[in-house]
Amino acid sequence: MADFHQNGSITTLHNLRTRTLDDLTYELTACAETRKISLILPCLYSELEGPALPAILDELCTVPYLHRIIIGLDKADEAQFRHAQTFFSRLPQKHMVIWNDSPRMLALGQRLDALGLAPQEAGKGKNVWGCMGYLIACADSAIMAIHDCDILTYNREMLARLVYPVAQPSFPYQMAKGFYPRIDGQKLNGRVTRLLVSPLLIALKKVVGDRDYLDYLRSFRYPLSGEFAMRTSTLPDLRIPSDWGLEIGVLSEAWRNLAPQSVCQVDISDAYDHKHQELSPEDANRGLSRMSTDICKAIFRKLASDGTVFTPNLFRTLKATYYRQALDLLECYYNDAKMNGLSLDRHKEEKSVELFAENIIRAGQIFLENPHESPFIPTWNRVHSADPDFLSDLLRAAADDAQDYR
After folding, report:
1. What order do you get walking across the sheet with 11-13 strand by strand?
2. Which domain of life is it from (predicted)?
3. Are 183 and 272 in contact (CB under 8 A)?
4. Which of 88, 113, 234, 358 is the most exposed place for a label (fewest CB within 10 A)?
5. What's the mean pLDDT in 123-130?
């Protein structure tokens, strides 16, 4: 998005189309001589069989500045893990496929469970957390980047632009969040960001008043993007949510741990498309219904920890305010899509808004009934304090799995 607007909360780094990918790559390769850069790829085995991941590997094979790639593999049996190792073997960089369901990894999980430190549920949050632990144990990288494995429009410029702000030694940034328009050439996508997060943050500001945290979240153009880069020195104290609140949770941790001047967002693509979750109105534990509830809970928890008092009446007012704001924004999105020749189904959009409004109440009820609920996985600093050998054993388990299941 070629503009140069800054809103003052965090720095926005734009793509003004004045610098080539080759130039960025050359500079990153020089930076990587002294600040090694590693990439984490959390994935499901099913993504190895889809169209996106093979194309992503084609691009990654040509990236010269990556020191290490860590692949967290979920929902794979032994034969599938063996296939995954072959699948990723063409990567020229150092790489490790971590089989999260291996007997060794499950035994490590039981060890954490005995200490009361095990992640409470499987999913992307647990996968990312485990990969971060492996990277911390390697102790050889200064920069960590993460992106999803289902990006249909992926190219290596996305990664270069994502890591540049934290890899450039003259920049102060310790975290960079990627943003982009969620379009596929035909439709305007990104329903949860457009129809839940954006109007919810506006409604919260009206209902609970000005909060620096709300202004901070509103400054991100795509707060739910799965693409971010961080200095590895920040990882041991990072609390990773295990539910669908992962992206909001990481932004909240950056708000808690880092100065605003050390956080930025960066334009990484003109178009971004990946697999789409079903709305799933019939099942609150699946799809965008579950995602929207978890995101609301994550925002409510953070505001409560900063002193906001929530009541049933407040949540009812918030639902009504959100609903009006979401419908107003829907008109904006419709006009934007029409002007750019994109389709937008107003009926489906309003059905989404209705579901999200109900889930604001549902998330509020869960929050009020379980005020001590903590979906956060313990920090790696805490795990290391409770079990000083755990990280080295994690490193060894991943290496032994790679060796034994070739």
Report:
1. 11-13, 263-267, 175-179, 228-231, 143-146, 37-44, 66-74, 94-99
2. Bacteria
3. yes
4. 113
5. 93
Token duo for residue 290: 């579950």
* 3 state SS of 274: strand
Cα separation, 205 vs 135, whole angstroms = 38
Work out the angle at residue 128's Cα, subtended by the Cα atoms of residues 13 and 169, and round it to the nearest 5 degrees.
35
Topology of domain 11-405, CATH: Spore Coat Polysaccharide Biosynthesis Protein SpsA; Chain A (3.90.550)
Handedness of CA 149, 117, 217, 330 (dihedral sign): positive
Q: What is the DSSP string of 35-62?
A: S-EEEEEEEEGGGGGSSHHHHHHHHHTT
What 3-state DSSP class applies to 138? helix
User: Range with the lowest mean pLDDT among 206-215, 272-281, 327-336?
Assistant: 272-281
Alpha helices in 89-211 (DSSP H): 103-114, 124-138, 156-167, 191-192, 198-208
pLDDT at residue 2 is higher than 70 = no
How far apart (Å, rounded) are the C-alpha atoms in residues 297 and 15?
Answer: 33
Q: What are phi and psi of 240, to 5 degrees?
A: -100, 120
Query: Phi first, then psi: what are they for 2, rounded to 5°?
Result: -85, 80
Query: Structure tokens of 11?
Result: 């720095």
> Of 2, 10, 337, which Cα lies nearest the Cα of 194?
337
Nearest to 188 by CA among 346, 53, 13: 346
Instruction: Please list the residues that pair with 38 across neighbouring strands.
Output: 68, 144
For 134: left if phi > 0, alpha if psi spans -120 to 50, otherwise beta; the answer is alpha
Give percent helix, percent strand, percent coil of the chain, each to the nearest 5: 55, 15, 35
Instruction: Determine the residue type at 238.
Output: L
| Interval 14-61: pLDDT, tens | 999 999 999 999 999 999 999 999 999 999 999 999 999 999 999 999
Distance (Å, whole) CA 186 – CA 342:
5
Which phi and psi (to 5°) does residue 256 adopt? -75, -40
Q: How confident is the model at residue 284 (pLDDT cuts 50, 70, 90)?
A: low
Alpha-carbon distance 362 to 284, whole Å? 10
The first and second tokens of residue 153, run together, are 């429009």
